[in-house]
Specification:
Layout: H1 3-22, H2 26-40, E1 43-44, H3 54-60, E2 71-72, E3 75-76, H4 82-99, E4 103-105, H5 111-135, H6 145-155, E5 159-163, H7 180-183, E6 185-189, H8 200-210, E7 214-218, H9 228-238, E8 241-245, H10 250-254, H11 264-267, E9 270-274, E10 285-289, H12 291-297, H13 300-303, H14 310-323, H15 326-347, E11 352-353, E12 362-366, H16 374-383, E13 386-387, E14 389-391, H17 399-402, E15 405-409, H18 411-416, H19 420-435, E16 437-441, E17 447-454, H20 458-472
Parallel strand pairs: 1-13, 5-6, 5-7, 7-8, 8-9
Antiparallel strand pairs: 2-3, 4-10, 9-10, 11-12, 12-15, 14-15, 16-17
Helix pairs in contact: 1-2, 3-14, 4-14, 5-6, 8-9, 15-19, 19-20
This protein binds pyridoxal-5'-phosphate (PLP).
Pyridoxal-5'-phosphate (PLP) binds near residues 111 and 172.
Protein name: Serine hydroxymethyltransferase
Subcellular location: Cytoplasm
Subunit structure: Homodimer.
Length: about 475
């Protein structure tokens, strides 16, 4: 099918779908139309967002949403799951092929769910199974109350070492307010205070001293690649399970930009991911595992999950099929190339970047040199049609709410077709906003970390500059709504 006829079909499908929605709750139809207009009309630089294809999006809007299918393929606790079995098998097969993984579990509803499945699989494998064996029990139901209590105590007495939030780790990597920081005794590793880079010797020393059951690698806001072979060596030395959360950079793994030591899948015991960031699929999660952990991961339901979202599993299958096309490798290479262009665009304009640059899809801009908090910068940029998110930087004096950084990512605008020149211009537009923004004051005239004053005319000028780029690189070209 040609691109033009596909666009025509897509336009028809969405227009008709919106009319159906309109007949029930017009405000939702209106908000859906407005969301498309807003996404089309702004520079989306949120590193964790993307634009899924119409095929992926349309796959989610079907009657698979209505089906319960607790269990696994061919082993369901509900009747009439034959079509869900087809969907789940296909999604898992595509995932195994795409990532060269022995085992793929595609049921997690989100990245957090995927990490919960991983944590409890590790506990099942390393704590529950040996305990049951020792006690001669087949499963936990056969344990006496006293044995069950002691197993519960064991579950609650395990250790996790992960990257700290301000160094770029995720909430689920042992951050105290998150369940991962409560169900485990946790310690965190950071980055080198001078360079902002991971120091594997420091991670190894912490691991030797702390002796975690789980070593977590992966990040949400670290603008560099990680050597997962080294992380596995560290895990092996202390008898830990290496869990890699590749939620952010799964697209770069799928596109074979991260290979060898930088590909987590062959090195980690368990790899988790979201499917909606650089991988460009539907919102969801997934767990990949080595054979040793496959049976444990397979128990995600009932361990921590209920019924899978069959419509989303179907969309995962479609997205993975897309990611197996050669064009996805080209896309992934462009994500990384564009991040470099964006970083260069900032550096040539004297901005300070955490780690001094990037070699993945993230650029972390320190805005303190402009006298701003991340919160002020994020708000001023939004006024000009530039959508970013504020982010802590290592050792951030402004904490996780106000922050001193802005995190930028290239996956979404790369999907729109932006290249080197466009990203250089994006850097220029962002610097124009930052250099024309002053910190504001509270109503009482005190210095504020939230309010800001953007010089007259700048928002409009920058939005016009953004519009020029956006119009040349339309989102969902050919998709026309009435
Ligand atoms: N893991 C990492 C590294 C992430 O960056 C995120 C989300 O930002 C998640 C997990 C959680 O994903 P979700 O929002 O789908 O639960």
């Amino acid at each position: 099918m040609t691109d033009a006829s596909l666009s025509q079909l897509t336009s028809g499908a969405y227009e008709q779908a919106l009319q159906v929605i309109e007949s029930v709750e017009p405000r939702i139809a209106a908000a859906t139309r407005q969301e498309l207009a807003d996404q089309r009309g702004s520079l989306k630089l949120i590193a964790s967002e993307n634009y899924a294809s119409p095929a992926v999006l349309l796959t989610m809007g079907t009657w698979f949403s209505d089906k319960y299918a607790e269990g696994t393929v061919g082993h369901r606790f509900y009747a009439a799951c034959q079509n869900v079995d087809t969907v789940e098998s296909l999604a898992a097969e595509h995932a195994r092929e795409l990532f060269g993984a022995p085992y793929a579990y595609v049921q997690p509803h989100s990245g957090i769910d995927a990490n919960l499945v991983a944590f409890w699989s590790i506990l099942a494998n390393r704590v529950e199974t040996p305990t049951l064996k020792r006690l001669g029990a087949k499963n936990v139901n056969e344990l006496t109350e006293a044995d069950w209590e002691s197993l519960r105590h064991e579950f609650g007495n395990q250790r996790l070492l992960g990257m700290s939030l301000d160094a770029g780790g995720h909430l689920t990597h042992g951050f105290r307010p998150n369940i991962s920081g409560k169900m485990f005794h946790q310690q965190q590793y950071g980055t080198d205070p001078e360079t902002g880079l991971l120091d594997y010797d420091v991670v190894a020393a912490k691991a030797r001293e702390f002796k975690p059951l789980v070593l977590v690698a992966g990040y949400s806001a670290y603008p560099r690649r990680v050597n997962f072979a080294k992380m596995r060596e560290i895990a092996d030395e202390v008898g830990a399970v290496l869990m890699v959360d590749m939620a952010h950079f799964a697209g770069l793994v799928a596109g074979k930009i991260f290979t060898g030591d930088e590909d987590p899948v062959p090195h980690a015991h368990i790899t988790t991911t979201t499917t909606h960031k650089s991988l460009r699929g539907p919102r969801g999660g997934m767990v990949l595992a080595q054979e040793e952990f496959a049976a444990d991961v397979d128990r995600g339901c009932p361990m921590v999950l209920g019924g899978p979202l069959s419509h989303v599993m179907a969309a995962k299958a479609v997205a993975f099929a897309e990611a197996r096309q050669p064009s996805f490798a080209t896309y992934a290479q462009s994500i990384a190339d564009n991040a470099k262009s964006l970083a260069e665009g900032f550096l040539t304009r004297d901005a300070r970047l955490v780690t001094g640059g990037t070699d993945n899809h993230i650029v972390l801009l320190d805005v303190s040199g402009y006298g701003l908090t991340g919160r002020q910068a994020e708000s001023a940029l939004l006024d000009a049609g530039v959508v970013t998110n504020r982010n802590s930087i290592p050792g951030d004096p402004n904490g996780a709410w106000y922050t001193s950084g802005i995190r930028l990512g290239t996956p979404a605008l790369t999907t729109r077709g932006f290249g080197h020149d466009e990203f250089d211009r994006v850097a220029e537009l962002i610097i124009e906003v930052l250099t024309n923004t002053q910190p504001g004051t509270t109503k009482a005239g005190e210095p504020s970390k939230a309010s800001y004053v953007l010089a007259d005319g700048v928002a409009q000028r920058v939005q016009e500059g953004a519009d020029e780029l956006l119009e040349k690189n339309p989102l969902y070209p050919g998709l026309v709504l009435g």
